[in-house]
Amino acid sequence: DNRLNQQIAREFLLTSGLKVVVANDGQQALDLLAYHDFDVVLMDIQMPVLDGLQATRQLRNQARFADLPIIAMSAGVTLDEQAKCEAAGMTDFIAKPIDPLVMIDKLVKALANKQLLVAVETKATDDPVLESVAQGTLTLMGFDQERLQLLENLLGGYDQVVQSIRYLGEDYQTIEQDIQEYIAQQQYALASEKLHALKGAAANLGATRLAEKAADLEKSLKQNNTFNGELRQFCVAWQAIAHTLDALPKQTSIIPTPDSADWPNTLAQLQTLLEEDKLVPTELVNDLAIGRPAHQADMVERLCRAISSYDYTKALQILQALQ
Q1: Rounded distance, CA 98 to CA 85, Å?
Q2: Most buried residue, 124, 125, 199, 220, by most Cβ within 10 Å?
Q3: pLDDT, tens only, 139-149
Q4: How many CA atoms lie within 13 A of 18 on its CB side?
Q5: Are 110 and 40 contacting, i.e. CB atoms less than 8 angstroms apart?
């Protein structure tokens, strides 16, 4: 999924006590599953390289994955799409925007037979992650207040929510022009793909009206209906959000420089993981990038890219240069 939706889902799962590994497309997911054991897969439907339906079919063709829970995640909630997911071999379906309680319920069911869950006597409202905040600290035009309050709890505060909203602006800053150009060139499939991605991201952040107008235009394009009215309404909705994005503070927090004594320890941990061909926690990679001087920043960025693409041989070479 796009990085905004990845962040929201990942942070929620981590806060819920789960260990999370993110793959950026279906082929990366297959590569990870070939060498590492996982208890459940959350599978997006629309992905580059290999989509969720194709990836699931390939997994189900292998006996070792016959019982692996694979839960579909999609902004499309039609019965037709859910039927396609079931036919491909998926075991359940989670609609976006993510409802935390629904996601936990689906995961509990998926993991029920794996003896991984510890029974605790508590109420959902006792969980600070899921508890609704009576007086939210973040109010933004065009965004649903209740969703923003939930995200503040989910992501750990105001700054994290604002950063997620910034991602929306960065990832879709040319969306209005792109859609208009695709339509002018009669590239309706590309326009629909862009709108579908934006719809999910906007809904996750609580930009409800924008998500609705993107969905309306996507539907009209797919049905070959007249879409001038839907296009105008979509542009108005996007411009309202863009105005809010422009008004966001340029910086919400100061990134601390890590203790220099931790740098060699972090590199040593990373080297061990790479040499043993083990998964590298995202937090460890993120720690490397914080506060590095200019002469190391480019190498750290290349190291992160090599790790994210699972090129551990190249990553070790860069790591040795950094050491």
Answers
A1: 18
A2: 199
A3: 788 888 888 88
A4: 20
A5: yes
